[in-house]
Specification:
Layout lengths: L3 H8 L40 H14 L4 E4 L7 E3 L6 E2 L2 E2 L9 H8 L2 E2 L14 E5 L4 E6 L2 E2 L5 E3 L1 E5 L22 H4 L3 H6 L6 E5 L29 E4 L11 H12 L2 E6 L3 E4 L4 H6 L6 H5 L11 H4 L9 E3 L12
Parallel strand pairs: 1-14, 2-6, 4-9, 11-13
Antiparallel strand pairs: 3-5, 6-7, 7-10, 8-9, 12-13, 12-15
Amino acid sequence: MLLRKALILALTTALVMAPATAGAHPRPTNGFAKWGPWNQKLPRNVPLAPNSQAIVDNIKLDKEQNYGSWAINTDEYSAPVYTVGRHTPRRQWRFSDCLGLPHLAPVITDSLRSVPTPGDLIVSKGTDASVAIYQPSTDTYWDFWRAEKDALGNWSACWGGKIENYSRNPGIFDNPLGATATGLPFGAFTIRIEELRRGYIDHALNIVTVRTRANCNSWPATRNDGFVEGEDIPCEGQRFRLDPAFDVSTLTSPAARTIARAMQEYGLIMTDKGGALVTYAEDPRPHMARNGGVDPYFELFDPDHLVEPDGPEKYVVLSEIPVERLQALPMDYGRNRSRW
């Protein structure tokens, strides 16, 4: 799903930050630089792509033809997001080369060399087997794709990357690193459980659809794995937003209202292609392990228990957000405003 074509073309949790000091502007929850593409609010009168509606119509068609929903990926095809301490044991990870691209080994060697690896580390369900790790004491971030632990406890990954000086990075891996097909880190866009609890998200989210445009990536993406020809197919890295005139208060779920406001204020960035229309939230299982096995999303998505039994909430929580009210921004939107 994520990397095959993108890597060949390229070379061929919440993240809990230190509290802000008195009088200082609080750091974005995702911890990346405030001036990066994820953490800047969109102007209300932002320009739109000339073919915005045609692009959005194709996304709507992907939704209709693939399960009929805009779902939130949590424990499958998203990522657990770990914040680890200074003394977390460091391990040498191995390059698994699941794509048969041995010439990539030197590129990822440094990212695998010394990874702070919790003993209870898990990866997402599904074939992506992704995970994100942040160590505040070294201001370093890792994410990995197709990560796996063998019978002896040794970890390997087929791809991923490391970002040093995380808090000064705009939220973009150096090409061709990073677990997503666009080189955009999970830590930048993933919805955190704590954000839904507090009722406010202060960064752009991601959006994944079924058909993405071939050989097309828009900043901040550094690469793509698009495969469909056509000017009206969305490009990976392209930015979208929910029409600010849409009345968020009409949404039933408080989590949906929180998410929709972020879509209006910060927007969404197309980070990958997938099997359905989805947005990512952090894998709840590390939280569940600390809290008696209770999945927090049941109450966050459906506090009034309108959906029975527990489980389908992630498929319907965004059902009242009209996909046709998305707006596509111009290619490379924001690049000239960034310090990157």
